[in-house]
From TrEMBL:
Keyword Cytoplasm attached: yes
Annotated PANTHER family: PEPTIDE CHAIN RELEASE FACTOR RF3 (PTHR43556)
Positions of region (Disordered): 1-20
Described function: Increases the formation of ribosomal termination complexes and stimulates activities of RF-1 and RF-2. It binds guanine nucleotides and has strong preference for UGA stop codons. It may interact directly with the ribosome. The stimulation of RF-1 and RF-2 is significantly reduced by GTP and GDP, but not by GMP.
Subcellular location, principal: cytoplasm
SUPFAM superfamilies: EF-G C-terminal domain-like, P-loop containing nucleoside triphosphate hydrolases, Translation proteins
Family indicated by similarity: Belongs to the TRAFAC class translation factor GTPase superfamily. Classic translation factor GTPase family. PrfC subfamily.
InterPro entries per the UniProt record, alphabetical: EF-G-like_DII, EFG_III/V, G_TR_CS, P-loop_NTPase, PrfC, RF3_C, RF3_dom_3_sf, Small_GTP-bd
Swiss-Prot/TrEMBL keywords: Cytoplasm, GTP-binding, Nucleotide-binding, Protein biosynthesis
Binding site for GTP: S32, H33, P34, D35, A36, G37, K38, T39, D100, T101, P102, G103, H104
Record-given protein name: Peptide chain release factor 3
Domain Tr-type G: 23-287
Organism: Fulvimarina uroteuthidis
Lineage of origin: Bacteria, Pseudomonadati, Pseudomonadota, Alphaproteobacteria, Hyphomicrobiales
């Protein structure tokens, strides 16, 4: 999404030009457990990529400074990290699109959907803690989609666990082959820097920069640089790391079977540039995306993309709503009319925005792999497909059955309209699922993690001026129901009216007390399917 237009006429553009335009895109996310260092690493990547000038200080002047603080206020209220949803930067001819996964610890649909829009991921692990709960959950999602993962073992500048123990843990717990590529020289108090096992470069922790050793681990100059004791210990461990584990294999990595491991420090900026080089060299370019008419190839010359995230009220002063679109093919230009497949209508994309750190700018063009925000008033929903005259639909964006269900109680009944608006907006963002009972007027909301309820209440109060509380309902399990036979489904719904609610797309959802009740009802209604996930259409 560089501002420099590629000078070719769209109608005369040969296929090769399209390939060269998108093949320098790297669209990726960072997955980690809270506190492992995702924010610090993001900041250092932006710094290395020249998107921000000083660590901890986003470049901001005049109005932009205001926009930034507004943004941060919202993020603070939401209790999630202050990075924006997508950050684009360019280095050495490579366009990096870093998609933020929400920082709070609840597993949310939003996170899952963000991972549908990336081609690879960086997994950050705290060297003192190893694999933690959230890392594992996010990893499982990547595995489901065969997303290649680079592992960054962070905080190597301070006391941590033995590097071999960490490698073995990744290998065993995640069933991934590990290939160490950047290895630590000492650790904690004895930390001297990092060593690139393939390039034979030593990255000094003492600010002495990077030095190449032609003779590799046996180079006498390396011995001299590290000192006798440190050298002996390092040489043994580096040799074991290189010989005892798999060598980096780009094909196995891209297939999601092998993870290259980089030991470094986000805070001290050790090996972050190597990590970035690694993403540039080895991380996959935009991959074909699944659709109901078969995979859509990024080299296709017609524009296509899908909405993977919607965020309401990014700017509280202008009730705006931004739909984040991942492009999958073609050459998008500002002002283009795209077909909104769900409604069958064309929409003119006249003010597409892209994001550099906390700033937003208008973008003139985009290729496969790029992510832009399209401000709109509710036309665009998560899962929507945009095309240039074609009628296929991208697939693979799921909704998950909520695990926590609550009845919404409005403090001031005059605020019904605001509440409805807020629930609709936030349901579109994927923060919450909203269910309408057949009888009674109280909404039932469903979330995957309880923290989302707090976020929901504070956003409805802050952004829609309606105060709500949540009351327990007797149900804890929700399943979408469907059947081959419409008649059977209708009958089931009729027999269970009090337990069937409707989701926002009017699909029937069956609520029951617990898994035991669910098993009982499944057993007695073999012709009905009870789904824990459903595809968003
Ligand atoms: P996040 O929750 O994953 O976004 O983690 P943060 O980036 O906020 O980092 C959590 C804490 O770890 C902060 O206090 C950071 O300063 C610290 N931290 C991050 N990276 C490093 C590192 O490489 N070394 C050390 N010693 N501390 C780090």
């Amino acid at each position: 999404m560089s501002s420099v237009a590629i000078k070719t006429e769209p109608e005369a553009r040969p296929a090769r030009d399209m390939t060269s335009a998108y093949s320098n895109r790297r669209t990726f996310a960072i997955i980690s457990h809270p506190d492992a260092g995702k924010t610090t690493l993001t900041e250092k990547l932006l710094l290395t990529g020249g998107a921000i000038e000083m660590a901890g200080a986003v470049r901001a002047k005049g109005n932009k400074a205001r926009a930034k603080s507004d943004w941060m206020e919202i993020e603070k209220n939401r209790g999630i990290s202050v990075t924006s949803s997508v950050m684009t930067f360019e280095k050495d001819g490579i366009n990096f699109n870093l998609l933020d996964t929400p920082g709070h610890s609840d597993f949310s649909e939003d996170t899952y959907r963000t991972l549908t829009a990336v081609d690879s991921a960086i997994m950050v692990i705290d060297a003192a803690k190893g694999i933690e709960g959230q890392t594992r959950k996010l990893f499982e999602i990547c595995r489901l989609r065969d997303i290649p993962i680079i592992t960054f073992v962070n905080k190597i500048d301070r006391e941590g666990r033995d590097p071999f123990e960490l490698l073995d843990e990744i290998e065993e717990q995640l069933a991934l082959t590990v290939a160490p590529v950047i290895w630590p020289v000492g650790q904690g108090g004895l930390f001297k820097g990092c060593y690139d096992l393939a390039a034979n470069d030593f990255i000094s922790a003492k600010g002495a920069g990077t030095r190449h050793f032609e003779g590799g681990l046996d180079d006498p100059a390396l011995r001299q640089t590290l000192g006798e004791d440190a050298y002996a210990a390092f040489r043994d461990s580096a040799e074991l790391a290189a010989e005892g584990y798999a060598a980096f294999d780009p094909v196995a990595y891209r297939d999601g079977h092998l993870t290259p491991v980089i030991f470094g420090s986000a805070l001290e900026n050790f090996a972050v540039d190597r990590l970035m080089d690694f993403v540039a060299t080895h991380a996959p370019e935009p991959r074909p995306q699944p659709s109901d008419k078969g995979p859509v190839d990024p080299s296709g010359d017609k524009v296509s993309g899908f909405v993977f995230k919607v965020q309401a009220n990014m700017d509280p002063k202008h009730r705006d709503r931004v739909a984040f679109v991942r492009f999958c093919s073609g050459h998008f230009k500002r002002g283009m009319k795209l077909d909104h497949v769900r409604s069958g209508k064309a929409i003119a994309v006249s003010n597409p925005i892209y994001f550099v750190a906390q700033e937003r700018s208008l973008t003139e063009e985009a290729y496969a792999g790029d992510v832009i925000g399209i401000p709109n008033h509710g036309t665009l929903q998560v899962g929507d497909t945009l095309t240039e005259g074609e009628t296929f639909r991208f697939t693979g964006l799921p909704a998950f059955a909520p695990e926590v269900l609550r009845r919404v109680r409005l403090e001031d009944t005059m605020k019904m309209k605001q509440l409805r608006r807020g629930l609709e907006d936030l349901a579109q963002e994927g923060l919450v699922q909203v269910f309408r009972p057949t009888f009674g007027s109280d909404w039932i909301v469903g979330v995957v993690g309880p923290l989302q309820l707090d976020v929901l209440a504070s956003r409805i109060s802050g952004e829609y001026k309606a105060d709500v509380t949540f009351e327990p309902v007797q149900y804890n399990v929700a399943r979408w129901i469907r059947a081959e036979s419409e008649v059977k489904l209708k009958q089931f719904i009729k027999d269970n009216t009090t337990q069937v609610v409707r989701d926002r797309d009017d699909r029937p959802v069956y609520l029951c007390r617990d898994e035991w009740d669910l098993r009982y009802i499944i057993e007695r209604n073999k012709e009905i399917s009870f789904d824990a996930t459903r595809e968003i259409v």
